Amino acid sequence: MTQRDLYAGLIRLHILHHAAKETIYGSEISEELAHHGYDISPGTLYPMLHAMESKGYLQSTIEQNGSRKIRFYTITDEGRLALKDAKVKVKELFGELFEDDTN
After folding, report:
1. Distance CA 103, CA 95 (A)
2. C-alpha to C-alpha distance for 12 and 65, rounded to whole angstroms
């Protein structure tokens, strides 16, 4: 298992978190993830966004911006529920990870 495998779930949670706050698009979320130390290529990010949409966590719309088309993502009700459930699990894990911070 690679670090990328471990971080994939965290990246998805970041995406849901930001999509719950506002509509997002690929390059914007890529910059946000980079700000948190995740170096994710478009070849990884866009399939992840599409998969999250296919699973019902996100929905997208395409808007024309000059000669470019941009796909914007918003969180769905299912995505909000998944994020809410994940927050409980992350909080519990956070507590366990840092209760004995000697390692």
Report:
1. 14
2. 26
